[in-house]
Amino acid sequence: MTEKPLTQKQALAAVIRALGGSWDTGRAVLALRLAGYEPATDEAAGKAARGHLRDLAEDGVIVRPDPDRAVYRPV
Fold first, then answer.
1. Is the pTM of this model over 0.70?
2. Mean pLDDT of 51-75
3. Residue 61 contacts residue 17 (beta carbons within 8 Å)
4. DSSP of 48-63, one letter per residue?
5. Is residue 34 one of the residues assigned to a domain?
6. Number of domains observed in the structure of the chain
7. Which residues 6+ apart lie within 8 Å of 39 measured at CB?
8. Is residue 1 very low, low, confident or very high in pLDDT (cuts 50, 70, 90)?
9. Which of 8, 6, 9, 7 is closest to 56 using CA atoms?
10. Strand 62-63 relative to strand 73-74, pairing
11. CA–CA separation, 46 vs 27, rounded Å?
12. I need a labelling partner for 75 at 20 to 30 A (CA). Which of 4, 53, 54, 61 fits?
């Protein structure tokens, strides 16, 4: 049986859990690119990364300790 590849969100969650630390848009974009996801433009990459970070925060995987900064940390 073949395994399905991870979604971008799943891949980002796995990297965040493995590495820990602070996560902003730039670090999330880099992690997604290293996982093999290559969007058409840098703008699209940032938009996707921000969306995944927000989704992971909603799922309780990461938290945003300072509401004035878009920097997240694993729970």
1. yes
2. 97
3. yes
4. HHHHHHHHHHHTTSEE
5. yes
6. 1
7. 45, 48
8. low
9. 9
10. antiparallel
11. 10
12. 4
